[in-house]
Write a structure and sequence with these properties.
The chain is mostly helical. Helices cover 56% and strands 7% of the residues.
Length: 112
């Protein structure tokens, strides 16, 4: 659930950091279902250097636009007061941890 179980287990966070394992989070879904924005570990994990990125969960249920991923990014930017650099890091993490072939990911990252 976007790392919410890891919030109180620093050892696991450290292992995820060392291995650079990606953690996906959907703040809109989390807020609607079980964890308030103020308790979401996403910004804390980002500041600690964990490889966090944003995703959508059940876009027809939780989102109000035709671009649910952009909605997640916009919400995270405003709610967690993320800088432009933070947003670029989150987007880069998303590309690095996606399942596209390595040559395509490399091309996307070189363009930025």
């Amino acid at each position: 659930a976007g790392g919410t179980c890891m919030k109180h287990v620093p050892v696991v966070q450290y292992l995820y950091y060392l291995a650079q394992i990606g953690i996906y989070s959907s703040p809109l879904c989390s807020n609607a279902e079980y964890i308030a924005y103020s308790n979401n570990p996403f910004p804390e994990f980002l500041k600690r250097g964990l490889k966090v990125s944003l995703c959508t969960v059940d876009p027809l249920h939780y989102h109000h636009t035709r671009q649910p991923v952009l909605e997640e990014y916009g919400t995270a930017s405003k709610v967690f007061k993320l800088s432009g650099v933070d947003m670029c890091e989150v987007a880069r993490n998303s590309v690095e941890t996606c399942s596209y072939p390595a040559d395509i990911k490399r091309k996307w990252l070189e363009a930025s």
